[in-house]
Design a protein that fits this description.
binds zinc ion; zinc; mainly alpha; four-stranded mixed beta sheet; 270 residues; membrane
C-alpha cells in the first residue's frame, strides 16, 4: 500500500507511524515503570499520621454504612484474636502495626487491609473456612477454627500492609488519572478517583502484580510456619468454590471479585 503513496505522503505515514509507536512505548513505560517507582517514592514520604487518619476514617465510614458488629460467638472471636496475636508473635512482626477487626457484612466473604494497618475479616469468610474443617475433619469443639486457612487469609492482608500496597496503589491510580486528565484536559476524574473507594480499601481492584506479591508473602510465611503454603491453597480453593455457588443468587463477592482468578493465583503460589 505504501508503494501507491507519493514520496511526501510516505514521509508523513512514517512520521505518524513512529509517533504512535513512541507514544505507545512512552505510555507503557509510564504505566509500568515510572508510575510504580514514583508511587513508592511518594508513599514513603507521606507521614504516618496521614495513614492513621485515612485508615481510621475509612473504618468509621464502613461501620456506618456497610458493617455491623460481628455475630460470631464470643469464644470464636476470642480464639481468632488470640491466634492472630500469636501469629504476629511467631513471625516477629511489630504488634503495634496491625489491628484485627471482625465484622458482619450481610453474608459477604471478605477480608481487606486499611491504610492504618487495620485488617478486617468478615463473619461469612470465617464461617466458610470453618465449615470446610467441620465437614472434612469432625471436631469435638463447637467452635472449631480452621486456624491455618484463617491465618493464610490474614497473612495475605498483612502482605498488602507490609508492602504498603493500598497507599501505593492509590497514588499510582491518582498519578495515572492526573497524567491522563492533563493530556485530555479533564481534571474532574481526579477528584472522583480520590474520593471514591480506593482509599477505603473496600472497592479496590489491586493490580495483578500486587495480588501476586501479597499471595507470595502469605505463601512464604506459611512455609516458614508449616513447611508449605498448603493452607493458602486450601483457603483460596474453598472461597472460590463457595463464591461460585453463591454467585448464582448473589454476584457481588468483593474479596474474590477484586482478586485475580483462582488458577492464576494458584499458579503464582506453586
Ligand atoms: Zn489482596
Amino acid at each position: 500500500m505504501l508503494s501507491r503513496l507519493t514520496e511526501k505522503q510516505r514521509q508523513w505515514a512514517l512520521i505518524i507511524f513512529f509517533s504512535v509507536v513512541t507514544l505507545a512505548v512512552l505510555g507503557y513505560r509510564l504505566y509500568h515503570s515510572f508510575l510504580p517507582t514514583a508511587s513508592t517514592y511518594i508513599a514513603d514520604k507521606i507521614p504516618k499520621e496521614i495513614y492513621q487518619s485515612i485508615g481510621q476514617s475509612a473504618l468509621e465510614q464502613l461501620d456506618e454504612t456497610e458493617f455491623s458488629d460481628s455475630e460470631l460467638d464470643v469464644t470464636t472471636q476470642d480464639a481468632i484474636r488470640t491466634d492472630f496475636n500469636q501469629l504476629i508473635n511467631e513471625l516477629n512482626l511489630d504488634p503495634d502495626r496491625f489491628t484485627l477487626h471482625m465484622r458482619h457484612w450481610e453474608g459477604q466473604m471478605n477480608a481487606f487491609a486499611l491504610m492504618d494497618g487495620s485488617i478486617v475479616i468478615t463473619d461469612a469468610l470465617v464461617n466458610n473456612l470453618n465449615a470446610v474443617l467441620d465437614s472434612n475433619a469432625p471436631h469435638d469443639s463447637e467452635q472449631a477454627l480452621n486456624t491455618q486457612a484463617i491465618r493464610a487469609v490474614l497473612l495475605h492482608e498483612i502482605g498488602h500492609i507490609e508492602h504498603n500496597h493500598l497507599m501505593e496503589h492509590t497514588i499510582r491510580v491518582s498519578l495515572f488519572y492526573i497524567s491522563a486528565s492533563l493530556i485530555f484536559g479533564d481534571i474532574s476524574v481526579v477528584s472522583q478517583i480520590l474520593l471514591e473507594g480506593s482509599t477505603m480499601g473496600l472497592n479496590i481492584a489491586y493490580s495483578r502484580d500486587l495480588e501476586v506479591e501479597a499471595d507470595q508473602y502469605a505463601a512464604d510465611q506459611l512455609t516458614k510456619l508449616y513447611g508449605s503454603p498448603a493452607a493458602l491453597i486450601q483457603a483460596l480453593t474453598v472461597l472460590y468454590q463457595e463464591s461460585e455457588q453463591e454467585n448464582k443468587s448473589e454476584p457481588d463477592l468483593h474479596w474474590l471479585s477484586t482478586h485475580p482468578n483462582l488458577e492464576a493465583r494458584l499458579e503464582g503460589i506453586k
